[in-house]
Amino acid sequence: MDNRTYIGIDVAKDTLDVHILPEGQCVHCTARAKDVQRLIGRIERLSPELIVLEATGGYGTTLAAQLQDAGLNVTMVNPRQVRDFARAMGRLAKTDRIDAQVLALFAQRVEPPKRSVGDAESRRIKALVARRRQLVDMRTAERNRMHRAASPEVAESISQVLACIEQQIDDTEGQIRKAIEASEVWVEKVEIIKSVKGIGDVTAGVLVAELPELGQLNRREIAALVGVAPMNRDSGLMRGHRMITGGRVFVRNALYMATLVATRHNKKIKAFYERLVREGKTKMVALVAAMRKLLTIINSMIRDMKPWKEKIA
């Protein structure tokens, strides 16, 4: 019998639900700072093998960071994985308390790999990158509304909002640059990534902030983590199309745009992409393969802390 302690925590805006295995003990508390600190102290005394939270937003990340800073093993997992796990177990009901129990069972039976949420500096840069992404989405929404503006007054209002959003994007990008420049390690990593033709400041910042595992995993692991590894769709004699799925969508989106540029201006990536197209691959399949190749190269560059060289491709 496994006597190691596993903990699942369901995080809401104002409350926390905790399930502790193998005792089967449940704890409910508020998300007030003093209650959270009391909870962390209690968890420390248990010396858990692993604590699992869902990666669903800022509240969970903040708690995961506090647990990590206390020296505890914590990981944040994709909510879809947890729901699939719950359905496989026949757990169809959903409450905060049940979710905490499912997370604890997921930790105990699956033992997902422990992943650091980063230090305070990296979390700050990641938050700024996320804020820039939100602002860009807002800008896109307002631009779409401009096309449907029903009157000059509405168009003027949208123009003013767009101007404000543009200023906020510029300010946030400046804050990201300053935050990166304040760390020698971050500066070096960003400069190494930017040595690849097709990658600029924004993409390099996203890769460093949203993919701290760069350089620490092998090529298959990093491809699967980002979601650019082809998955089999076979059953019996049927052989389905390989598809990419899951992974970190924001990293994949940034990598997609960088690869589009690279297929035109990066000699090695362009040659690789064009060879696949000549061999009969569809352009999208060839582009995904080029994304995977570019990611693999960047992963190797960060592992060795060496800039782009044509021969490494």
Topology of this protein?
Elements: E1 6-11, E2 15-21, E3 25-30, H1 33-46, E4 50-54, H2 58-69, E5 74-77, H3 79-88, H4 96-110, H5 120-147, H6 152-181, H7 184-194, H8 201-210, H9 219-226, E6 234-235, E7 238-239, H10 249-265, H11 267-278, H12 283-304
Helix pairs in contact: 5-6, 5-8, 7-8, 8-10, 9-12, 10-11, 10-12, 11-12
Protein traits:
313 residues; alpha/beta; Nucleotidyltransferase, domain 5; 3 domains; five-stranded mixed β-sheet; 12 helices
Summarize the structure.
With 313 residues, the chain is of the alpha/beta class. The chain is built from twelve helices and seven strands.
What does this entry look like structurally?
The longest helix is centred in the middle third of the chain and has 30 residues, at 152-181. This protein has a 5-stranded mixed β-sheet. A two-stranded antiparallel ribbon has the order 6-7. It is an alpha/beta fold. Helix content is 60%, strand content 10%.
